[in-house]
């Protein structure tokens, strides 16, 4: 009998956690010839999420959980869940029920019978989300696909079931600065997409604000593309060429026509613009240096404060 590991990162999800468990547990009952385990990752929650997970583990031996010592982020939580999963198939799901549990049965059927390595949910729309956030999200994916030479679309999220071979391949990526959507695309396993409509959270509030989304977007670009560095060099060369041409033009006008060279204000403005651009691209280079700095430290991706239901072989 196959085993399916359902990995669920959780951060302050006390309002929706029991509802998620009930709905998902009901959905997996319909999956024939497979048993399931729930692996909850408490990512440093400050509400009663750890207490609820403890009660679930006591009630249902299929439920296991890790509690981080602090908030390490969703990427670290997903990696930790995958490390502790021993199923033949692994699933990433959000606890807010925006990933429909009803699709799990079809995902398993696809992997079992159609020869795919992965079956993922594809969100067809963003109904219920703000127009500004919708626009920024679509724009980001257009930019990152051009910069990174990867196939990532706006509707392709973390909700997916994968076979053991794909799960083990993801575990080979040991970097500290992780961007899981990029890793999914980079490893190149065969994936079938199942469309579904966006739904609002069943309860609670989203933990993603514009600041965290912007930081996440930058992580994706800097993790999988060196295009910003190339752009910095190209822009510097163009600015240098423009400066040389302007200097030659001003000198020619002064010699042939006696036209006065630009005043002090123009010089000051030019210096400010050039210095601003220089500092901007120094910041881009600094992003790569800082990320390399964090990689060389070899710090752990997460620290477990408490766990329940796992064998010592996982530690």
Automatic annotation (TrEMBL):
Coiled-coil regions listed in the entry: none
Entry superkingdom: Bacteria
InterPro entries, per database record: Glyco_trans_2-like, Glycosyltransferase_2
Glycosyltransferase 2-like domain location: 5-169
Signal sequence range: none
Keyword Cell inner membrane among record annotations: no
PANTHER family given in the database record: GLYCOSYLTRANSFERASE CSBB-RELATED, UNDECAPRENYL-PHOSPHATE 4-DEOXY-4-FORMAMIDO-L-ARABINOSE TRANSFERASE-RELATED
Protein name, per record: Glycosyltransferase family 2 protein
Organism: Faecalicatena faecalis
């Amino acid at each position: 009998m196959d085993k399916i590991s359902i990995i669920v990162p959780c951060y302050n999800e006390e309002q929706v956690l029991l509802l998620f468990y009930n709905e998902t547990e009901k959905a997996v009952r319909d999956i024939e010839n497979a048993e399931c385990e729930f692996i909850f990752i408490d990512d440093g929650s400050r509400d009663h999420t750890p207490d609820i997970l403890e009660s679930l583990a006591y009630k249902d031996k299929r439920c296991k959980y890790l509690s981080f010592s602090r908030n390490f982020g969703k990427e670290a939580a997903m990696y930790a869940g995958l490390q502790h999963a021993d199923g033949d198939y692994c699933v990433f799901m959000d606890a807010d029920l925006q990933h429909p549990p009803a699709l799990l049965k079809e995902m398993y059927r696809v992997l079992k019978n159609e020869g795919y390595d992965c079956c993922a949910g594809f969100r067809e729309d963003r109904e219920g989300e703000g127009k500004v956030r919708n626009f920024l999200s679509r724009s980001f994916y257009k930019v990152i696909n051009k910069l990174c030479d990867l196939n990532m679309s706006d509707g392709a999220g973390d909700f997916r079931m994968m076979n053991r071979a794909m799960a083990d391949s993801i575990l080979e990526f040991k970097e500290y600065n992780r961007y899981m959507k990029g890793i999914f695309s980079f490893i190149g396993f065969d994936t079938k997409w199942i469309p579904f409509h966006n739904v609002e959270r069943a309860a609670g509030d989203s933990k993603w604000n514009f600041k965290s989304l912007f930081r996440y977007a930058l992580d994706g670009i800097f993790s999988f593309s060196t295009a910003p560095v190339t752009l910095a060099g190209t822009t510097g060369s163009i600015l240098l060429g423009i400066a040389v041409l302007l200097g030659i033009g001003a000198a020619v006008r002064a010699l042939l026509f006696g036209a006065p060279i630009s005043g002090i204000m123009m010089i000051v403005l030019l210096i400010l613009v050039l210095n601003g651009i220089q500092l901007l691209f120094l910041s881009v280079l600094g992003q790569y240096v800082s990320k390399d700095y964090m990689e060389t430290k070899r710090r752990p991706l997460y620290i477990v404060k408490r766990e329940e239901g796992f064998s010592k072989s996982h530690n």
